[in-house]
From TrEMBL:
The keyword Membrane applies. Pfam families: DUF202. InterPro entries: DUF202 (IPR003807). The lineage of its organism: Bacteria, Bacillati, Actinomycetota, Actinomycetes, Geodermatophilales. This is YidH family protein. It comes from Geodermatophilus arenarius. The chain crosses the membrane at residues 28-49, 55-78, 99-119. It is found in: Endomembrane system.
Length: 122
């Protein structure tokens, strides 16, 4: 082991704490699981509820869910890459717009389903 003065004179490259990288990876996996669940829900709606309020209802909801799932997975990957860069360079993490966008998309799909259910019941 080199003396303390030698290691201070030749410090190694800074390396981020592995815990941050692994936590960022777990977050990416959560985004991917959410995207996969949305895609599976879209496929299920399109397959088992083809006429939801209108002849195009099930297909529209299924397509909206699949597109939202794809967007969620891509947004999670983009967020992971951005956070990895910030962790490696010891920069602050930037607040992203992914979460508000996902909330808006899911809200829009829920509203579409609500309108189609009202049409189905009426």
């Amino acid at each position: 082991m080199p003396p303390a003065s030698e290691s201070a004179a030749h410090p190694g490259p800074p390396h981020p704490d592995y815990r941050f990288t692994l936590a960022n990876e777990r977050t990416l996996l959560a985004w991917l699981r959410t995207g996969l669940a949305l895609v599976a829900g879209g496929v299920a709606v399109a397959a088992y509820v083809p006429r939801l309020g209108a002849s195009w209802g099930g297909g529209a909801v299924g397509l909206a869910l699949v597109a939202t799932g794809l967007g969620t997975a891509l947004a999670g990957y983009g967020r992971w890459r951005r956070n990895e860069r910030a962790i490696a360079t010891d920069a602050p993490l930037r607040a992203g717009s992914e979460v508000p966008a996902l909330v808006a998309l899911v809200t829009a799909v829920v509203l579409l389903v609500a309108v189609l259910l009202v049409v189905e019941v009426a």
